[in-house]
């Protein structure tokens, strides 16, 4: 995997009080949000060098190459920074499940919703076709 071209050094990013940067991970093809994780500078640099998503595990306090034990790697397609430069969006090609539960996404449990909004969005889609 080729090294990723870097337009923004880690030192330019605004980190949380724990020295970490939140990363929202999105499926490059579907746009589905897969997970949220965190990076420190070493994880950021490893991701850029290998083209595979590497995070910092807050519970284990060590680098975590996504897929290293499961084989469910995330290959970087592009990285974006938000307007405050304090959150990263990673668009990835996900191999297998992103979630440790075996689900494709970690966001599989709906806890709230608006049925009217869902009906209207369905209607809008039907009207466009």
UniProtKB/TrEMBL annotation:
<protein>
    <recommendedName>
        <fullName>Phosphoribosyl-AMP cyclohydrolase</fullName>
        <ecNumber>3.5.4.19</ecNumber>
    </recommendedName>
</protein>
<feature type="binding site">
    <location>
        <position position="83"/>
    </location>
    <ligand>
        <name>Zn(2+)</name>
    </ligand>
</feature>
<dbReference type="InterPro" id="IPR002496">
    <property type="entry name" value="PRib_AMP_CycHydrolase_dom"/>
</dbReference>
<feature type="binding site">
    <location>
        <position position="84"/>
    </location>
    <ligand>
        <name>Mg(2+)</name>
    </ligand>
</feature>
<dbReference type="GO" id="GO:0005737">
    <property type="term" value="C:cytoplasm"/>
</dbReference>
<feature type="binding site">
    <location>
        <position position="82"/>
    </location>
    <ligand>
        <name>Mg(2+)</name>
    </ligand>
</feature>
<comment type="function">
    <text>Catalyzes the hydrolysis of the adenine ring of phosphoribosyl-AMP.</text>
</comment>
<dbReference type="InterPro" id="IPR026660">
    <property type="entry name" value="PRA-CH"/>
</dbReference>
<feature type="domain" description="Phosphoribosyl-AMP cyclohydrolase">
    <location>
        <begin position="35"/>
        <end position="108"/>
    </location>
</feature>
<dbReference type="InterPro" id="IPR038019">
    <property type="entry name" value="PRib_AMP_CycHydrolase_sf"/>
</dbReference>
<dbReference type="GO" id="GO:0008270">
    <property type="term" value="F:zinc ion binding"/>
</dbReference>
<feature type="binding site">
    <location>
        <position position="99"/>
    </location>
    <ligand>
        <name>Zn(2+)</name>
    </ligand>
</feature>
<dbReference type="Pfam" id="PF01502">
    <property type="entry name" value="PRA-CH"/>
</dbReference>
<keyword id="KW-0963">Cytoplasm</keyword>
<comment type="similarity">
    <text>In the N-terminal section; belongs to the PRA-CH family.</text>
</comment>
<comment type="similarity">
    <text>Belongs to the PRA-CH family.</text>
</comment>
<keyword id="KW-0479">Metal-binding</keyword>
<comment type="subunit">
    <text>Homodimer.</text>
</comment>
<keyword id="KW-0460">Magnesium</keyword>
<dbReference type="GO" id="GO:0004636">
    <property type="term" value="F:phosphoribosyl-ATP diphosphatase activity"/>
</dbReference>
<feature type="binding site">
    <location>
        <position position="86"/>
    </location>
    <ligand>
        <name>Mg(2+)</name>
    </ligand>
</feature>
<dbReference type="GO" id="GO:0000105">
    <property type="term" value="P:L-histidine biosynthetic process"/>
</dbReference>
<comment type="pathway">
    <text>Amino-acid biosynthesis; L-histidine biosynthesis; L-histidine from 5-phospho-alpha-D-ribose 1-diphosphate: step 3/9.</text>
</comment>
<keyword id="KW-0862">Zinc</keyword>
<keyword id="KW-0028">Amino-acid biosynthesis</keyword>
<keyword id="KW-0378">Hydrolase</keyword>
<comment type="pathway">
    <text>Amino-acid biosynthesis; L-histidine biosynthesis; L-histidine from 5-phospho-alpha-D-ribose 1-diphosphate: step 2/9.</text>
</comment>
<dbReference type="GO" id="GO:0000287">
    <property type="term" value="F:magnesium ion binding"/>
</dbReference>
<feature type="binding site">
    <location>
        <position position="106"/>
    </location>
    <ligand>
        <name>Zn(2+)</name>
    </ligand>
</feature>
<keyword id="KW-0368">Histidine biosynthesis</keyword>
<dbReference type="GO" id="GO:0004635">
    <property type="term" value="F:phosphoribosyl-AMP cyclohydrolase activity"/>
</dbReference>
